[in-house]
Design brief:
By secondary structure, the chain is α/β, with parallel strands linked by helices. Among the domains are: about 170 residues, FAD/NAD(P)-binding domain, CATH 3.50.50.60; about 100 residues, no CATH class. Helices cover about 30% and strands about 20% of the residues. The chain has twelve helices and 20 strands. It is globular and about 65 Å long. Bound molecules: flavin-adenine dinucleotide. Flavin-adenine dinucleotide binds next to helix 1, strand 5, strand 15, strand 19 and helix 11.
Length: about 425
């Protein structure tokens, strides 16, 4: 196939599709509505902090094979830090307790038999609670198949599932939760090493992808919002950007990698999630104290995860719709009070920024998950990509990147290529 592939949207799903296609020798043109790439996963210079920060802290795990392969392919690995050990440190703000969860490397989870590797106050059989999740029937919620209470739930399953699903776990789709568990804790410690873009999300995942595309003759055009697609039978015949229309040749193809509301406005017959949840991040311009963990899980506070970067401390709060109307100053003060307690830093508020992503991810309930479309559409030359399509994962970097791979594989007429890539990784 010699035609051009037009990729609409330069978020990670669009970039992943574009990289895969350009690497296979296809001519690729990426059209991005904004003046920057990366979508919901990017860095920018923040004037209040006078620092380059990320729109939100993003955690990957070493089991995210597609994300790591993408980083390797574009040359972004130097901007990420991969923890040496599968270890997760936690702090309880109510009791002051600290602990580190230490899964062993292999698949056989003998670590749950060792009290020093477990969550304090829990017993080995408690760790079997998610078996109901792993066996959940379609459309079940986590709350229907697992007891959402008790010390292990409060100190492990709730924070982990909330972060992965950005939805209160009790209401979340159990099969999505199961897939997270299968690809992380159930896959053994080797899949659970934290991975953080300490050099910045754009330096790791976005800028090298654009350079990769340009080196292969691809184009990335900014300020190009797709306004309309013209349809002729089972084909897209033209794409309209307002001031510029492109008529598609017989071999030209389209990857539509835009958010769900944009996709359904362009193609109303597409089904897509309609409910979303916010994520709030608090960024503080201060050097972390010596020995501060890369990522610290926090329970019994507003703070849920504390990330340490060389020039700042940043806090993530998931499913944070309840905080959208709270004044920013109040959020910064509350969060900083907690961070000062956790780190031993002075209580005076450093320079700060609060970033609220209102529609951070789709709500991972069974009702919303059922609306996710396949990448294939009824148009021969148009496929979908995005974290909201049917990836089998919640809205994550890994899901976005896999969706881009699926879209590229479908256009190449090799839909099973994703499975081959997974096996190769
Ligand atoms: C604050 C926050 C924290 C997160 N934390 C994590 C985490 O810890 N771990 C994790 O794995 N994931 C996390 N995520 C999720 C992750 O960021 C997303 O799943 C991923 O970035 C989505 O990529 P995408 O390409 O699917 O969508 P998007 O990033 O939304 O990309 C869509 C692109 O399309 C463009 N566009 C829109 N309309 C048009 C148009 N008409 N024409 C052309 N272009 C258009 C947009 O500008 C955008 O660039 C987080 C998300 C947020 C917001």
């Amino acid at each position: 196939m010699a035609g051009i592939v037009h990729v609409i949207g330069a978020g990670l799903s669009g970039l992943s599709a574009a990289v895969e296609l350009a690497d296979a020798g296809r001519r690729v043109v990426v059209h991005e509505a904004a003046r920057f790439a990366g979508g919901r996963c990017r860095s920018y210079h923040d004037a209040a902090l006078d620092l380059t920060i990320d729109n939100g802290n993003h955690l990957l795990l070493s089991g995210n094979w597609a994300a790591l392969a993408y980083l390797d392919r574009i040359g972004g690995r130097d901007a990420v830090t991969i923890a040496d050990e599968p270890a997760f440190s936690f702090a309880d703000l109510a009791t002051g307790e600290r602990w580190t969860l230490r899964p062993n490397q292999g698949r056989l989870p003998w670590w749950i038999l060792d009290a020093r590797r477990r969550v304090p106050g829990t017993r080995a059989p408690d760790y079997l609670a998610p078996i109901g999740v792993l066996r959940a029937p379609p459309a079940a919620t986590v709350g229907e198949v697992m007891a959402c209470r008790g010390p292990l739930y409060d100190r492990l399953w709730q924070p982990v599932l909330l972060a992965a699903l950005n939805t209160e776990p009790g209401e979340a789709d159990a099969q999505l939760a199961a897939q997270i568990l299968r690809e992380t804790l159930a896959a053994g410690g080797q899949a659970c090493r934290p991975v953080v873009a300490t050099g910045g999300l754009s330096a790791a995942l976005v800028d090298p992808a654009i350079a990769f595309l340009r080196e292969r003759g691809g184009e990335v055009r900014f300020g190009r919002a797709l306004k309309r697609v013209a349809l002729e039978g089972a084909r897209v015949s033209a794409i309209h950007f307002g001031d510029d229309d492109i008529t598609l040749g017989a071999d030209d193809q389209v990857v539509l990698a835009v958010p769900p509301n944009v996709a359904t406005a362009l193609l109303p017959e597409i089904s897509a999630p309609e409910r979303f949840h916010a994520i709030v991040n608090g960024h503080f311009r201060i050097a972390p104290p010596a020995g501060q963990q890369l990522v610290l899980g926090v329970v019994n506070g507003m703070t849920e995860w504390l990330f340490a970067y060389p020039d700042r401390l940043s806090v993530t709060i998931s499913c944070a719709d309840r905080l959208l109307d709270t004044p920013r100053e109040a959020l910064a003060e509350t969060i900083w009070r907690e961070v000062a307690t956790l780190t031993g830093l002075a209580p005076e508020l450093p320079r700060w920024q609060i970033v609220r992503e209102r529609r951070a991810t789709f709500s991972a309930t069974p009702q919303e998950a059922a609306k996710r479309p396949e990448a294939r559409t009824r148009y021969d030359n148009l496929v979908l990509a995005g974290d909201w399509t049917q990836t089998g994962l919640p809205a994550t970097i890994e899901g976005s990147i896999r969706s881009g791979l699926s879209a590229a594989a479908l256009l190449a007429g090799a839909p099973d290529r994703l499975d081959r890539s997974r096996r190769a990784a």
